[in-house]
Amino acid sequence: MSQSSVETLTATLSNIGQMLVYDPKSPMLFSSGLFWLLFIFFLPVYALLKGSKRKMILFVVGFSLYFYYKSSGLFFLLLIATSFIDWNLSKVIYNLKTRKWKLTVMWFSITLSLSVLGYFKYANFFLWNWNQMVEGNFQPLDIILPVGISFYTFQSISYVVDVYKGRIKPTRHWVDYLFFLSFFPALVAGPIVRADYFLPQVEKNLMPSKENIWGGLWLVMIGIIKKAVIADYIAQYNDLIFNSPDLYTGVQSLMGVLGYTMQIYCDFSGYSDMAIGLALIMGFKLGLNFDSPYQSRNLTEFWRRWHISLSSWLRDYLYIPLGGNRKGTLRTYINNFLTMLIGGLWHGAAWKFVFWGAMHGVGLAIHKAFKPLLDRLPNNFVVTFISWVLTFMYVSLLWVFFRAASFSDSVIIIENIFVDFYWQQIPQFAIARPVWCIMMGVLIIAHFVPQSIADRVQAIFINVNWVVKLILFLIIVQLVIEFMSEEVAPFIYFQF
Fold first, then answer.
1. Of 173, 307, 347, 367, which is the active-site residue?
2. Which end of the chain is less congested by CB atoms within 10 angstroms, N or C?
C-alpha cells in the first residue's frame, strides 16, 4: 500500500472516529444523517435479536445510551445513575410493609430526582433572583443542561409513585428499568411514557406487524416533513421578527407570531411523530402526543390535545394530588393555576415561562368559571368559529412570551400588531415571501383535515407497493435537501 493510500485511510478513519464521538456543537438528532446511518445498521441486528428478549433489551439499552451520549456527552452516566438509584428505591418501597415508611422512601426518591433536575435547570435562575433581591454581583454557575433531563426525570418519578400506589410492581432486573428510562425514541424530548403502559409491551416482546413497520415509517416521514421542511424553513423568518422586534411593522410581527405558532407545533409534533414512528417500527407503542391542538375551541380542550403525555402527567401526578376538583370551586381554580404555573416553570428557568404558564392557568380558570353559561350557547357554526378564534388568538399571543428573548420584546411585538397594523401590507408580504405563505397555507389546511381521512391515507401507504413507498421517501429526502438551512436546527424542546 502506497504512502498516499495509507494517509487517505488514516484520514478517513479519523473522520469516522470524530463523527462517532460527542460534539457539543452538533448533537445527534432524529433529523440528522448520522442518526439514520446508525439506525440502518441498528435495525437488522435488532430484528435478529428480537426473538431473545434479554439480548434485545441489552442491545437496545446499549444503542440508547450511545444515542444519549451523542446527544449530551458524559451525562449519559447521570441517566444510568438515576435509573440505578430509583430502581433500587422502588424495590425498597415495594418490600416495605408499613405505609409510613413506603411514603418516606417515595418522597426521598422524588426529592432526590427533583434536586438533580433543580440543580442543572434552575440553580442559576434562583441564584440570579436572590442576587437581584440583595443587590449582589451575580456570576452564573458554569452549568450545562443535560438534554432531555426533564423528560426522563418525570418518567422516573411516575414510576416510583406508581410502585408506591401499587399500580405496578418493580421490574425484576435493573436493566429492564434502564430499558424503559433510556428507550431512545422517547429519551430526549418525549413523549413522557408511563411504566404501566410501556413495560407490559417489553414483557410481551411482540414482533412488529406489517402495519407497525409501514405505519411507523409513515409517521417518521410526516415528522421529517413537519420538522426538517416546514418548521426549519418558516423559522428563518420568525427568528428575524423575534430577534429584532422593534424593526418590523404590525403585519410583519403578526406573521412572525403566526409563524412561530405553527413552527413550535411542527417542530415538537414532528419530533413526536418520528419518536412514535421509530418505536412502532420496533414493535412498541408510545401513545398519541398531539391531536390537532389548534382545532381547539377552548383552553381545556387545547391542553387535552397539546403535548398530551405532559398534560396527562401533570394532571395525574400534580393536579389530582393537589385535590383536583374535589375540594370546592375556588380550590379547583387554585389547583389549575398552580399546575399550569409549575408546567410553565418546567419548560424553562425564566420568568417568561412562569408568566406563560400562569396565564394558561388563568385562562383555564376563566373557562371553567363560565362553562355553565357557555354550555347554554347554541352549538352552531358561528359559536364554534368565535370560540375557535378566541382560543387560537389567546394561545398564539402567549407563544410570544414563550419565544421572545425578554418580556419587553414580547410587549413590543404585541404592541406592533395592535398599534402599527395596516391591512394593505398583507398582499405586499405575500409577494415578498411566497414560499413562506404557501407553506403556512398548506400547514393550516392539513391541520384541519379530519382524522378519518388522515387514517385512510396512512392505510393506503401501508398497503401500496414498496416501489411507491421508496419514491415517496426519496421525494421527502429531496425536499429536506432543498429547504434545509446550513446547519441542522435542533428541536425546540431539546432545551427542556
1. 347
2. N
Residues 277-331: pLDDT tens digits?
999 999 999 988 999 999 999 999 999 999 999 999 999 998 888 887 787 788 8
> Annotated catalytic, 367?
no
Question: Whose grid coordinates read 456570576?
Answer: 139
The predicted model scores a pTM of 0.89
